[in-house]
Amino acid sequence: MNKILTTALVSLGLLLGGCQSAYYGAMEKVGYHKRDIMVDRVKDAKESQQEAQEQFSSALEEMQALLNHDGGDLEKAYNKAKDEYESAQEAADDVSNRINKVEDVAEALFDEWQGEIGEISKASLRSKSQAKLKETRRSYEQLIRSMRRAESKMPPILTSMKDNMLYLKHNLNAQTIGAIKGEFASLQSDISGLIKEMNKSIDESNRFIAAMESGN
Q1: What is the pLDDT of residue 216?
Q2: More confident residue, 46 or 166
Q3: pTM for this one?
């Protein structure tokens, strides 16, 4: 879909007051069906997870640089670490928003699919469509579980980062930095676990997208 048309449709969705059913209806009129929207939203969610991986890694690197501070501008190092923490929070919020959008269109797609199956008069075709719906729903549920599992690992990490940043803010000196070094290994481990979990979710996304695009 070209960018001008996409922009126009997004604007239409906003004018409709954010009503998703109206938005889906408007998109369908120009040949952009719920299945297409779902694939695009899974791609968006996957990309947001990839961006979050990079951002959490960057935040970890800046915190490590701050903890290994060797006499330069301490406040500048703190501000860089703080900025990366805030960017990680924004990235986490984006991941959650994108997953929510996947769930919204999935619910609409499956409801529509189930309803249309009831309109198929031939029993053999109705049975095949029902089986395909069941298979797609099972694949989707596996995907969304993987996404939510990765998502759930972000809040504890962000809380730990926030605690450390606030602690440092109140008394920014070498002694204070030394006091939180013991927690850094745990934070490293948690972020490593997050990245691994996101990689699993990204792999699930790729499998789901391939299956939806191939029609299998």
Answers
A1: 61
A2: 46
A3: 0.85
- The alpha carbon of 161 is separated from its chain's Cα centroid by a whole number of angstroms, namely 20
**45-48: Cβ within 8 A, 24+ apart:** 45/95, 45/98, 45/99, 45/101, 45/102, 45/147, 45/205, 46/201, 46/202, 46/205, 46/206, 46/209, 48/91, 48/94, 48/95, 48/97, 48/98
Supply angle C-alpha 134, 136, 139, rounded to 5: 110
Quote the tokens at residue 152: 């759930």
In 3D space, the residue among 211, 213, 200, 215 whose CA is nearest the CA of residue 46 turns out to be 200
Find, among 215, 207, 193, the residue nearest to 43 by Cα: 207
Q: What is the tens place of the pLDDT at every residue in 102-121? A: 999 999 999 999 999 999 99
Question: How distant, in Å, are the alpha carbons of 48, 51, 76 from that of 90?
Answer: 10, 10, 21
pLDDT of residue 184 exceeding 90, the answer is no
DSSP for 57-90?
A: HHHHHHHHHHHT--SS-HHHHHHHHHHHHHHHHH
- Which amino acid is residue 114, in one-letter code? Q
